[in-house]
Amino acid sequence: MKRTFLALSLMAALAVLQPAQADKYSDGFDAARKNMNALGDKALAGDRNALTQLEQTYQACKTDTSCTRSDSRWLPAAAAASNLGWFFWTKEALGADRKNYGMYMYAEAARMDAPAGAFQVGKCIAEACLPAELEKAYLKDLFAFSRNKPWDGGKYERFSAASEIYRKGAAGGLVEAALAAARAENEILKQDLVSAKYSSWEEQVIADYEHRLRIVEVSKQGLAHNPTDQQRSALTQFVTGYEPQLPGMKQTADTARARKQAQGAGASAQATPPVSTASSRGANYEADKARARDCIREREELDDWLNELRSWKRDLNAWDREIKASSIDLQVAGGSNADYNRHNANVDAYNAEGRDYSAEKRQHDQAADAHEARCKGSFNRAAIDEVCTGSAASSRFCKRFR
């Protein structure tokens, strides 16, 4: 039940990227990145104290449930995790047998929103750098609310998952992540993976439009974050190539969505699509429709996650009772040194498992808080009426609007 995550050393990303000044991080993260990068350099040069400082900086936030994104320790911990990933995975500084620990730390940096961490996760997904069982273990929580999971599907799911994580890095200011996301989306279109993924005309049209829209949006994001000349040229080509297609494709996608709505309501699949456009349905129609779909999916994932945590807690409680019984037996009847050693080892293992549980419970609670922040408040009624049909109508989210 121990969960792991992916991330990347900002220094590693800079080693891969062009040497020209680029990217636009937040001031707080940029300062933390520079401090942790200095420690990473020292650690690579053989300074074990520097390596210890990186571990301690990361662990200070990892093991404390009160450390959230608003905590002053969060950004240094994210940057420290990036450097640990670079040290163990990219540089293999302590040997190939410790390499996978580096990917674990890359995952942690991505979880903590280190932009280059997200880039390295996307790169790993795109290149299938891990066996499927490790990929799932490392990335399970990063993709808890995602439609496409890289270990569960084919090329479409893998490119989509890589794009999703790349876009996380792009949002943090990393230009190379924006370019990588656009390329991943473009591969989906070049290889015609949409038609292989979706069987109906409606789903294909909607997905085709959404992939093109993401290419344009993430490319513009990269252009706003100080790209190099080479990056600017590539990103501009994506914008000029796909943006002119969007208006007409959006109209077709809106028609496809209307047909899906009619089919969901029991209407004939050949019914004439409604003439009204999304704009006639009120403000925030498209945005609230997408948000509502995400809220339904996230709530289901959170409920499943909480059930796993409750099962884990029951196991821990049973283990605790066994330890207490063993302690009483030793106090009453005594035992050999081997008996005491076994008992103490069991206690240590229990405490370690308890720390893992507490860390994961904190992650769940943070995700639940973020879900509530996104999903509370008002929604466009037409968007709710469209989304809350069929099986979705019985979801906890949709029941709020009855």
Give the number of DSSP strands. 0
Low-confidence stretches: 1-21, 267-279
What is the helix fraction of residues, given as a range?
over 70%
Briefly note the structural class of the backbone.
Answer: mainly alpha
Strand content: under 5%
Separation of the first and last Cα atoms: 37 Å
Oligomer: single chain
Dominant shape: globular
The H-and-E topology, N to C, reads as HHHHHHHHHHHHHHHHH
Number of helical elements: 17
Q: Tell me the Rg in angstroms.
A: 24 Å
Tell me the major beta sheet: none
Average pLDDT for all residues: 83
Give a description of the structure.
This protein is mostly helical and 402 residues long. Helix content is 71%, strand content 0%. The longest helix is centred in the last third of the chain and has 49 residues, at 285-333. It starts with 9 loop residues before the first helix and ends with a helix. The model is unreliable at 1-21 and 267-279 (pLDDT under 50).
